[in-house]
Amino acid sequence: MIKAILIFNNHGKPRLIRFYQYFAEDMQQQIIRETFHLVSKRDDNVCNFLEGGSLIGGSDYKLIYRHYATLYFVFCVDSSESELGILDLIQVFVETLDKCFENVCELDLIFHMDKVHYILQEVVMGGMVLETNMNEIVAQVEVQNRMEKSESHMERMLLRRHLEPLSPHSHELG
Amino acid sequence: MSDVVEKTLTALPSLLSLDSQPGSTKLSSTSKLGTLIRGITELTSKHEEEKLIQHELTSIKEQVSSPNTSMRQMKELMVRAIYCEMLGYEASFSYIHAIKLAQQGTALEKRVGYLAVSLFLNESHELLLLLVNTVLKDLQSTNLIEVCMALTVVSQMFPKDMIPAILPLVEEKLNHPKEIIRRKAVLALYKFYLIAPNQVQHIHNKFRKALCDKDPGVMTASLHIYLQMIQENPEGYKDLTPSFVTILKQVVGGKLPMDFNYHSVPAPWLQIQLLRILSLLGKNDQSTSEIMYEVLDESLRRAEMNHNITYAILYECVKCIYTIHPKSELLEKAAKCIGNFVLSPKINLKYLGLKALTYVVQQDPKLALQHQMTIIECLDHPDLIIKRETLELLFRITNAQNVTVIVEKIMLLYYLYLVCSCFLVFFPMNHYTYAPDNEWFIETMNTVFSVGGDMMQPDIPNSFLKLLSEGFDSVEEDRKLRLFAVDSYVSLLQGEPGKLPQRFLQVISWVLGEYSYLRKELEAARVLRLLAKLLDMKNTSSETKSWVLMAMTKLCEGRTGLSVAQEVSETYSSSLDTVLRQRAQELQHLSQDWELQARVLPRDAGHEPLEVDSSLSFLDGFVSEALAAGAAPYKPQHQRQEELAQAKALSLEPYGLSLPISMSSCSIADRQSPTLLSISSGLSGDSTELSHKGGSTSLKLDGVKRVWGREGYLAQREPVEESAHVEVPSPLRSPNHQGEADSQTPTPTPTPDPEQEKQQLASSLFVGLSSQSSVCLMGKSEPTPQRFRRKTKGPGSSSAVGEQISNSLVSTPSTVDNLLCNNLLESNITSELDVSSLEQTSQLAHGLTTANGNCDVELTDSDIKGSSPSLNGDNEVVAADPGSHEDPDGPKDLCLSSHLPAELSGLSHSEITPLCSKQSLDLSACHVHKDDFLVLVVFIYNSSDSDIQQILLELDSDELEVSCVCDNRVQEARSHSVAVCQYFLTVKRPSVHFKVVGIVSYQFPVGTPQSVQFSYKLPLTSFIRPLTLTTEEYGTMWLDFSHDTKQNLTLISDGQEPLAATLNMLEKKLQLHVVEVIGMEGIVACQLLQDQPCLMHCRLHAGTLAVWLRSPVPDLPDCLMYHCQRALQEH
Fold first, then answer.
1. C-alpha to C-alpha distance for B515 and B529, rounded to whole angstroms
2. Deepest in the core among B102, B399, B585, B1040, taking most CB within 10 A?
3. Quick one: how far is CA B1081 from the chain centroid?
4. What is the pTM of this model?
5. Where is the AP complex mu/sigma subunit domain (chain A) (predicted)?
C-alpha cells in the first residue's frame, strides 16, 4: 500500500499532498516538514530509499523518493511494495506529467494542482497502483480533457448566445 | 529526465508578469488562484503568509456561502481552498460545499467536488454520509467519467457502515464492458475487503472471475486482492498456484501485448506482484514449491541486467527462491544474483543487495562470508541508509566471538541511532549474553545511555535495570556487576552530570539507591550529596527528580544523611509537582523512621515480584455498596467508546438489542463468577489481553521465542532453554589468530595497510559463522564452554554419558552392586553398613587435578514425555518401557533407574539426566512424581577402582524448599557402584522453571578434597497435580482468589471439537482436571503441591481460547499460563 505521496520543492514548499491514510491536519504538516528535512539532507549520490523513521506507522514503512531539478517526489509505502518498482512508478508519473503539460515544470504543478491530482488518480487509486503504463494514463487523462474542452466550448456558445442573442437568427434571416 | 522540471521558482514572478509561457497563459492576471499564489511567493515570512491565507480564507468563506455564487465559481473557490489546506490552513467551512459541488455540479464541477472531498475528509467524517446518495447516483450514471469518479472516491474513503448500500452496484461494475471501469471496481472491492472483510465474503468467486479477466489490466488489479488474501490464509489458495505460475510463465515469455512492456520488459509490476504471491504460496510447502521452480528459473534467466526494473524483478525472484522450499540449483543461482546486487556500483542496488543478504543469512550465514569485504566497505559508506542496512546485517550474524568488534563498530557509528533510534531495540539485551566481561558491558551501556539519551525507547533502561536486579546464575558475578556499575556511576556523577541525558540520570539514581551499599567504603552521605546535586541542576526534569528522591529515600541513614534528606525534602515538599511533593513527603517520613524504611524498602528486593491485586478485589465491598446506592456499573473504556460511536452513527437496525441494559442488570458478583461469565465475557471481549497487561508489572520475556542464542542466530534449532551466563570466552582477537586469518585471504603479506585493516576487521566480524564450512577464513575456532554444555544435553552425545555407558556395561559386578545398593537403601542403613575402609589405602595411580568442574543440566518439560500419563493411576514402570530402548540413553537409563528406591520405582519419573562428571564421579538425576509430593533423586556413580567416602551433597534453590529424605547427607560410593540420594522438593515461590543448584564435595582415599557444582532444572508442571472439584465449589473458590491473569491462546483442532481437544490436551500434558465444559466455556482446576489451588476458565472467543487463571498464590497464574502456551505450541 502507498500511504502518502508528497511533492515539495527544494525549499520544502508543498506542491501536492495526497494521503491515503488518515492523519490529522497538523500531523500531515509535521510529516511534510519532517520528510522534507530527511530527504533534503541527502546527496544526489546516495540511495533513494529511507527507512526507520517514525513518521508514518513506524518501521514497516519507508520513503522512496526521486529528486528532479527543483522538486522532490516522495512516496511513503509499506513493506508490501517493491522498492525499485515504486522508484520506476515515480518515473512513470513524472514522464506522464511531462507529456500532459508539455515540458512540465514546477509552475505547472503550482497552478494546475487539481490537474496533477487527476493524473495521479489514474496512476494510484486509494493507495493501490492502478496503472503503470504511461500511454494508458495519458489516454484516460485525455478523455477527461476532451470533456473539459467540449464543456468550455459549450459554455462559450452559451455565452455568445447570451451576448448576441439575435445574431444567429439575423444571419438566418439575412 | 532531470531536465523535465527545469524551470525554477526563481523565474516565477517574471513569468507571471510576462504571461507568455504556454503553462501560464491560462492564468490570466485576474485569476484568483494566480493572485493568491503570486501573493504567497512574494512573501518573506511565515507570519505574513499566515495573514494572507487567513484573509484569503475569509474571502472564500464569504463567497461560498453567498447564494449568488455559481457552481462554476464554486469550482474555482474549491481549488483555492484545497491550496490553503495543502499549506496547512484549515478550511472546514468549505467541506459541505465540496459535497454540494459533487452532488449538483456538471461532470467537471463534480470532479473538483470529489477531489476536494477526498482531500478534505476522512473515512469517519460524519459529512461523508451526505455523499452516499451522490455516489449511488453516479455509479448508475451512463457517463463513464462519472462512474470512474465515483469508483475513485469510493476507493479513497467511504464510510464502513455504508458499504452495503453501494456494494451491489460496485459488484455489477465487474461485468462492465469497459476495462477501466472493471479495473477500478476491482480495486474498490479490494478497499472494501481491507476495511470490512466480512462484507465482501460472498463475492470471492467474483474475484476469481476478475483474475481470469480477458484484460490483463483487470487481472493485475485482482492480484492486489489475492496478495492480501493469501497473506492472511495461504492454505486456502494453494489450488491457484498453477494458475499464477501459468500467468507468470506467459508474462515472462512475452505473451502479453507490447503495450504492457516497460523499457522492453514485459509487465514488470505484474511480475513483481506474481512473484510475491508465489513466495507466499510456496513457503513451507514442498509440493507447491515444486510447481514453481521452473518458472522461477526462467524469470532469473530472462531478466537481463539492463534496467532498474529488471533488478526489481530479480530481487523479488531471489526473495521468493529463499522463501519457498529450497532447491539447491536455484539457491545457487539466487546467491550469484545477490552477488550482482551487492557488488553493483549503483547504490540502490547495493542497498537491495544488503537487504537480500540480511534476509538470506538467516538461512545460510555462509553467504555473508563471500561478501565480507563488500560488507566492510559498506560500513564506511557515506550513505547512512547503507550503513544502517549493513549494521542490521551484522546484527544477524552476531555471535559470542565477534560481539566486541561489532559493538565497537556500532559505537563508532553511533550517531546513526539518533536518526534511527528504533534500531536500539535489538540492542543490547540480546547481546548481553555475549558480553565478554562486566566492565565491557557497563561501559558499553554507559555509552549507549549517554549518546542514545532521551531518544531511546524506555524499554532499554528498563530491561537494563531488570537485568541488573534479577542477576544471573552466580551471586558473586551479580555482585561484581552491580559493584562495577555503582563505581562507574559515582565517578560519572563526580564529573559533569549536567551533560548526561535524563534517562541515564534516572538509571544512575536507581542503581545508586539500590546497590550503593555494596561498596562498603562508600558513605551513604556522599552518595546523597551527589544525588542532591542532581536536584539542583537546572535542566533536570521533574521525572528524573522523582527518581532521585526515591533513591535518596532508600539511601538515607545516619546523621549526615539525615540532614541532607531533611533539607531536600523541605525544598520539595512545597513543589508544584504533586509527584515530587509526594516523594519529598516519603523521604521526610522514612528518613526519620528507619524501621519503617527497612520494611517499606527492603534492601536488594528490586527483583522480588510485587504482589499486585490486579482484579482490585479488595474494593469489591466498596463497589457493591455504590451499586446498591444506585451507581451505574462500570463499563470498560472500549465499550463506552463503542456505545458513544453507536449513539453517534446512524442506527441501521431500528430495534437492535441494546447491550448496556442487560449489562446493568447483572451484579458485580455475577461479573466475576466464571459460571455465569458469558454475560460479561461476551461484552469485554478484548479486555482479556488488556487486563493481562495491567496485571503483570514486570517485563515478560518467558513466552517470547528465543531467536538469538549464545552462538548467534538459532536458525531452525529447537528452542534451547538457556540461562544467561556472565563468563563467555572473549572473542578471537589475539593477534596470532588474526594472522592465521590473514594467511587464508588471497594476498596475505604485501597488502596495503587499509586493505589489511579491512581484512582484519572482516576476520573479526565474521568469526564464528563458518563453524561447519571449509571456507573458514577466521582460523580455528575455540571450543567454547557453551558448546560443550549444549552437547551434554543431547542424549548420548556427551562424552560423559558415553563413558558412563561403557563403564556400566563393562563392569560386570554392577548388577550385584545394584542389588546391594537397593537393599541398602531399602533398609535405610547407608553408611553404617558400608564396607569398612579396606580399600581406602589403595593408591590411585594417576594424579588428580584440582580444578572445579562446572556443569549444568537443564530439563524442559518435553523431557518428561511419556512418563506423565502414568500419573493418572495406572502405575507403569517407565524404566521397563520397551520404547525407551530406542533412546541412546536407554541402557544407562535402564541401569540407573534400577537404582531407584523401591518405594519410588513404581511411579513415573523424568528422564534420568547426567548432571556432571568429574574424574571418576558421574552425577545424574531425575525427579519422581508422586500424587502428593515430588522427589528429586540424585545418582552418584563411582567409576573408579577405589571407594569414595564422605560424599557431601548440598542442594539449594531460590524458589524451592529442598529437604533430604533421610537426614544423613553424607554418602559414600563404592567402586563401580551407585549411591542414591533423595530429596523432597516443595515450592516456595512459583516460577516457570525451577533450578536446583548443588555442590558435591568428596575425597578420594588419597588426594585433595574435590568439589563439583551442578544445577538441575525442572519445570513448574512437575509440581502441578489435578484438583478434583465440583462446579459449585469452583464457583465459590473463584471469587476468593486475588491473583489472576488473562491471555488468548491458540486452539488446537484435531478434527474434533476444538475446545474439548484443547482441554484434553492440557489435561493430559499439564495434569489439570477439567471440572466441566459448558457450551463454549470450560472450567479447569489444578493444584500446586501442596494444596495451592489454581483455577482456570477457558472460553472460545474469535477463534482463540481466552484463558483466565486465578489463584491465591502470586505468580502462579502467570507461570502456569506460560506452560499452557508452551503446551499448545508444542502440540
1. 16
2. B102
3. 29
4. 0.54
5. 1-147
Of the candidates B1, B223, B252, which has an alpha carbon nearest to the alpha carbon of residue A92? B1
Size of interface A-B (CB pairs under 8 A): 204
Sequence-ordered list of residues with C-beta below 8 angstroms from that of B624, at least 6 positions apart, any chain: B667, B668, B669
Tell me whether 0.90 is exceeded by the ipTM: no
What pLDDT is attached to residue B278? Answer: 93
CA dihedral B503, B505, B508, B513 (to 10 degrees): -110
Which stretches in chain B have pLDDT values below 70?
1-31, 305, 398-438, 440, 451-460, 471-473, 557-560, 603-612, 614, 638, 641-895, 966-971, 1006-1007, 1054-1055
Band (pLDDT 50/70/90 cuts) for residue A120 is very high
How much is the pLDDT for A166?
38
Counting runs of H as helices and runs of E as strands, what totals does chain A give?
Answer: 6, 7
CA triple A18-B8-A97, angle to 5 deg: 45
SS3 B212: coil
Specify the pLDDT at position B20: 38
Evaluate the CA torsion angle B283, B286, B289, B291 in order and state its sign: negative
Please say whether the beta carbons of B723 and B473 come within 8 A.
Answer: yes
Put simply, the chain A residues between 72 and 111 with a CB less than 8 A from any chain B CB are 80, 82-85, 87-89, 91-92, 94-95, 97-98, 101-108, 110-111
C-alpha cell at B307: 534496467
A138 Cβ under 8 Å from any chain B Cβ: no
Show the cell assigned to B293: 521452480
The H or E element spanning position B513 is: helix B502-515
Instruction: Look at residues B724, B728, B693 and name the one whose alpha carbon lies nearest to residue B708.
Output: B724
Confidence of residue A85 (pLDDT cuts 50, 70, 90): very high
- In the prediction, which pLDDT does B269 show? 92
For B53, residues 6+ apart whose C-beta sits below 8 A from its C-beta are B40, B84, B87, B89
Grid look-up 460545499 returns B97
Q: Give which of B1, B9, B17 to mutate to test A binding, by max A Cβ within 10 Å.
A: B9
Q: Is A103 exposed, middle or buried (0-12, 13-18, 19+ CB in 10 A)?
A: middle
Tell me the one-letter amino acid at A10: N
Query: What pLDDT does B187 receive?
Result: 92
Residues 139-198 of B with CB under 8 A from A: 144-145, 152, 155-157, 180, 183-184, 187-188, 190-191
Residues recorded for chain B: 1131
CA atoms within 13 A on the CB side of B673: 13
Are B352 and A84 in contact by the 8 Å Cβ rule? The answer is: yes
User: Which chain B residues contact residue A107 at CB under 8 A?
Assistant: 7, 9, 12, 15, 21, 23-24
Which amino acid does the sequence have at B496? E
Instruction: Give the three-class secondary structure for B995.
Output: strand
Phi, psi of B970 (to 5 degrees): -90, 130
* Cα B814–Cα B820–Cα B822 angle in degrees, nearest 5: 100
A59 and chain B in contact, CB less than 8 A:
yes
What is the distance between the alpha carbons of residues B630 and B382, in angstroms, rounded to a whole number? 69
* Neighboring chain A residues of B384 at a CB cutoff of 8 Å: 46
Cell numbers placing B1083: 472450567
**What mean pLDDT do residues A138-153 have?**
81
Q: Is the pLDDT of residue A86 over 90?
A: yes
Phi, psi (deg, nearest 5) at residue A114: -60, -40
